[in-house]
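Slide 14.
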Amino acid sequence: MIREKKTRKRLAPHEAEALGFDVKSPIPTEVETNTNPRYYLTIEQHHKLIDIRKNYIGNTPLSIKGTSTLKDGQGNVLLEWVKTDVQEQDRLEALRVAIDALKEDIEPAAPLKKSKKKTNSKLINQYLVTDMHLAMLAWGEEAGDDYDMKVAEDILINFFTQGIESSPNADEAILAQLGDFLHFDGLQAVTPMNKHILDADTRFTKLVRTAIRLIRSIISMLLAKYNKVTLIMAEGNHDMASSVWLREVFHSFYAKEPRLTVDTNPDPYYCVTFGKVCLFYHHGHLRNLSNIDSVLVAKFKEEFGNSKFVFAHTGHKHHKQVKETNLMILEQHRTLSAKDSYASRGGWISGRDASVITYHKEYGEVSRQTINIDILR
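Slide 15: predicted structure.
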């Protein structure tokens, strides 16, 4: 007797039900609390699963675009085709499913050793970088400065090296990456929404590897000095989908690191509180300094209500602007990246720098280091 070969697959509830299995409960793990259980499938069931998944991405059916119906002379329906259209939400759901699959194979890193230096528990240092545009290509003769993947990596590492060395010995730190960390968001070097062609230095796979390596290196540098680190990987208009996997991958990789908190909030508005200080973050592509303060208060009412000093930080425009409203101090930050040909030809000129801002639990902002590009070259 020949035993039929079976394969073991993770099935979503609707898939298990369609294949005739008793639906099992999700399997909680240290990393993910909603992992689909595994089932043993025959070859026939495996082929049926492929057909099921044609009309689904993850647990979500593809968006229905319309139907086509074939009828006989009496009006009886003979055949009907349901036409689907992979809309933006479907693509994001596909990305989420890919991330879930990737996280299953990620082995969390072992916790790093704490620094033995004495730290001030009333201080927190905020390292804010925005619009790094990794993989953007600029030619100095055309745009004023040369810029590529290697240049960007060197600049960023130099910024954190100098910022960590010269900043106060605070107990905590925030790595606030405010979006557009990646210049493009997929296999094609185009903007996600409008498909504008971009000047690109590299292939997307190399870009992904570099981005992960860079953030891991910076996290290690910060954990070597601080007892606690908060990581914010904000959504930008250039890396809307990539910001999703950046957050989720680091959340999984550092699942066993108690001194690192990764903000996995899918909404593109972020908040950190520290004593009487409330810090808001948003890239600036959806709301700007003229209208963001009320949105932040509406989204984070409790955090805002319990704070005395409130600051909001954005990027996106690449130039510095500070505004104080009745609710908070709003600041739009410069970037360390160079101009590309589009910005240079359009006449959008600004300085290049990044800041380390120190906040006190009782007194708000107490010091700031601004490190400009000339120091980092």
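Speaker note: The chain has a mean pLDDT of 87.
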